[in-house]
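Whether sequence alone determines local backbone shape is best considered at the level of individual chains. We regard such an encoding as a compact summary of how the chain folds. The sequence in question and its structure tokens are set out directly beneath this paragraph.
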Amino acid sequence: MPPPSISHPPAKPPEPPADDSDSDSDLDIDLEELDPEPTPAADQSRTGLLRHSRNSSSAAPEQRPPRIALRTLRMSGLRRGAKRNGYGELGSSHAGANEDHDPFSRDADSADRRYSDGSARGDDAPLLSRHSRSPVRRRGSFASDKLRRVGLRLPSFMSGSAAHHSNEAPEEDEEEEELQKDEDDPSSSRLVAVGSSQSTRFPPNIVSNAKYTAWSFLPVTLYNEFSFFFNMYFLLVALSQAIPALRIGYLSTYIAPLAFVLVITLGKEAYDDIQRRRRDNEANSEEYTVLRFDEPGRPGAPQPMRKMKSAHARKRGRKIVAQTDRLSDIQEEEEQAEGYGARRPSFIVSEVSKKSRDLRVGDVVKLSKGHRVPADVVILKCLSNEPAATAYEEEAEQQEEPLLLDHATATGEGSSSATPPAADPGAGAAEGGSNGETFIRTDQLDGETDWKLRLASPLSQNLATEELVRLRVTGGKPDKKVNEFVGTLELLPSRQDAMSTDSFSADNGSGVQAAPLSIDNTAWANTVIASHATTLAVIIYTGPQTRSALSTSPSRSKTGLLEYEINSLTKILCFLTLALSIILVALEGFSNTEGNVWYVKIMRFLVLFSTIVPISLRVNLDMGKSVYSWFIQRDPGMPGAVVRTSTIPEDLGRIEYLLSDKTGTLTQNEMEMRKIHVGTVSYATDAMDEVATYVRQGLQLATSSPDVHALVTPSTSHSSAAGASATRTRREIGSRVRDVVLALALCHNVTPTTEEDDEGRLVRSYQASSPDEIAIVRWTESVGLRLASRDRKNMVLESTHTGRPVVKVRILDIFPFTSEGKRMGIIVQFYPQMSRGAPPPLGDGSEIWFYQKGADTVMSAIVAANDWLDEETANMAREGLRTLVVGRKRLSAAEYREFSARYQEASLAISGREQGMQAVVSRYLERDLELLGVTGVEDKLQRDVKPSLELLRNAGIKIWMLTGDKVETARCVAVSSKLVARGQYIHTVAKLRRKDAARENLDLLRSKTDACLLIDGESLGLYLTHFRSDFISTAVQLPTVVACRCSPTQKAEVARLIKTYTRKRVCCIGDGGNDVSMIQAADVGVGIVGKEGRQASLAADFSITQFCHLTKLLVWHGRNSYKRSAKLAQFVIHRGLIIAVCQTMYSIALHFEPEGLYKDWLLVGYATVYTAMPVLSLVLDKDVDEELASLYPELYKELTTGRSLSYRTFFVWVLVSVYQGCLIQGLAQVLTEVDGPRMVAVSYTALVLNELLMVAVEITTWHWVMVVSIVATFVMFVGSVPFLGRYFDLGFLLTIGFYWRVAAILAMSLIPTYAAKVIRRTMKPPSYRKVQGI
């Protein structure tokens, strides 16, 4: 029988108490109120050692300090309050008697907690909830009470009782259960039972980038097609043939071309969407491991498994170094001693594999390093995969105060062979020995490159895995706020309680416990696990309700600018058709003939002239787009390129604004230490060997000393052996180099990890929230000082030369980096030697040092006066390096005690806590630091980024960089990538909150049109809200804009704003999930397939693998696509217009009667068999080769004006068509007859040959396909003539008179046209002719 529970008031989200008296009472609570003595029954259920430990830890009540840090009370209270639920007594006496023996252990503990979560947040949370200190009047909901305080609204079903549900039904009944569930209300909060089926039906976990569904495909695509004027025009013309009075020729003559166009277009759209669905299916089919919880007695349940000790260490075949699990051994011994060994577990945990689409809310997912998080989850447990410590680390652990051992042992109050306290049989800590920490990468979500620290709630971290089903999560409604989450985690007596919607109160003896959840306990979909630890997490939001999906705008059908331009020209042609029809009827005097009234004649003329609006134009353009897409995907210079939207390749040649992401797009997100300056000398990449020599000499004391345990401290003199032959200056430089390397090796938040690769070799890697810190730690390793181990209290450095530990420090305080402070600090106490025993006392001889590194803007006021810092940081910044200034200060024991007391006092303040704590740090630590040096870290750029950006700028494209990263990082990358020219003024706008200040910055920018604007997300939001038009009108005039700390929504809004204001083509390029909204909002979206996954690539119109491929995509393929389509469109219009002119001449000759000149097959054959191939071959034409196009990007710039297809060029082609049509039909009628088969034969033959020769005249660069198409078409025409006896006089075709008439007509039609073209090219050659002549 398990021991009775010990009630403990649950922790609450941070909130200020109602009055000061309330907070004071929290501070003066006696420890007995927080940790009451267990009953005798409970005491007897534990071993005698445990009773001794309990008595020892509470033996001296008079030694307790009167006031204890709230964070200490809260953390230890959470641990004590969970004894019944398997917490054991982990850390139960951290706030107990042992703190009296070392007044600094409390400070170290607080420092540890600051290190674990990255901040000191939550310290102002009231220790006890209000209702726990007063009689309970009613049985209320703990969850509703918690959420009411933090501002969440609970749905009505949480206040009533509901039937208990269970997921114990067989799996084949799951679908029936799903149908019986209530629909989820996305506007309300939700209750999620961990590891069980839910009473509410939530949306499936499916990713979809498809534009259409099976039901919406036809309506949407047909609407899009007939929204274009000329498609609607031809639909009306085709429908008019159902009226007998308007019918001319066969009905199929007009229906078939329209149907063919629609089939081609709809087929292409369907193919594109099927491809999107296929790629989505790949993402939705990704396999994940899910934990299944079965009752031991259930039929078919798996056998009990002793897993999770090391099972989580297996990851995709990669072997992790085995770790001795001390706590597991302790647990087994205690189980045998207490009779728990034979106890049947409450639930049996097994692992099942599920596809991403099959994951449901409530599933417990097992994630390892490199896994993409498939849905929004709350982290329950982090199980460490760390390898066994080295020998000296184990030796160091024996002298420390282990988390799993009683303080009594460390302080000498118990036996030296005391065994750690036993855990409950289900103690979760036995399964991993982790501290509940994991790191995630959020590049795809918010664009930030720093790793984020995430924590498992202590309530679930210390719970046995098989008991996780007793947990219930209360979360808010789905929203798009990726940096906010408020929820509650409840531990209930049974699984049925967790599955119900009943409210439970945390009354004494109820067995209900709860803990608050925040953003630190979550991982959103599309983030990536970065730690080696195995993470167990419960899914709370799936599919369209995830943060990632809510931040992404739905896919939309994109239409190219060329389509709109052709649509406008078509309206002009339609107007010409109507005007011509009315004029012809008017010239006849609107007279009525037998069977035809004047308005019917107008309608018949409209049908006859319908070729003026060529329906084949869409077919030719769509086939051309397919050819362009084929060229892009088969280009050997762009391996891996994919065209996902094949309707807009011409827009690639019209781009004027490029909006680019930074991380993974311009940069590789790989940091490298490039330079270090120590005041008198600077070391770059080539000189790092000299730094390594200095470090090796500086560490020789530890290896040459008679005391094998001696360690190096900052006060250790430089090796005399090394200095015997060195000058004094060289010894000083060596000492400075050693000091700065030592500072860099200690001042960070990096944790080393070790694992085996596939070949069995040990590979060391590092985990940290910032890639900058990892780069610096890797550099210190490369010069001789390796970070060997680190925990919350200690850090060990070893020499890479000897492999032995040379430095060991005790971590007293850590001050994490913040975007406001822009600096990071640490206080350490150096060990004089590597020996067993307690840490060195904080006496007068203690070496306590404060190290700090940060941005030069803040550190210049903190370090002592010097004459070189500003100059060197400016030099590094010009090189695009991210600079960090490093300083240190030695503290005496008395100084540290005074600082610690004041800092502790400030940390307990209810109001102004953060400011007070920072004031203490500034007063006692951040004054006159010794300046050690400056480091320069480079964020490696993608291949050929610099020349690519320069080429794009020369092509007339204005480049904006939109990133979620920090201001300093964005500035450095903008400089290093040459996005900002050398010497160009950078105007920084950050943290604007007042409208008047925003207005002043706009006025300044208007006067500096050659400046680069660097703006953060907060200021950008202010401008977009209050000065939208003024801001965008100013920003688009600037050559470069860099926006940092941008949310995905802001990126998309900027893209839409530029499009709306400028009416220019905007291209957006990115590689992460946070870029999807921007990519979809752009006219052209380009996704890069890279380290951050495929999400941006899947949602983009074009996918490439390198940023440098963008230049070829735009300058070569984009330019060719636009120019070819422009020439093709105009030639197709010419082809339709010339036959309409011939028809007009024929109708005039027939006294304005609406009779058809070419009927049936002649009309259809002209637009298909006899001219289609040569005209379509124009898509292979090119005016310059690829090398010239890249060498002269200015050729691209002239395309943005749209001169290739403009009203001017359009009317030139109209004049050519009118001239040639009048000449061909007029001469045919003059030289033969007005109406008859001879005239038709001469006119039609001259018309077809004229078009073939016009194609040849228009070609700039010949391709063998063009030759074949022209010759083959001519042969097909000649071969089909014998079958045209219904229309031609075949006997006349065999006479010489037919040939000289055709030749004369062609000469008069083509020679003047070609001569005019040659003269124009000579007088005013186009740009491509100029560069060809260079």
Summary: The first helix runs from residue 20 to 27.
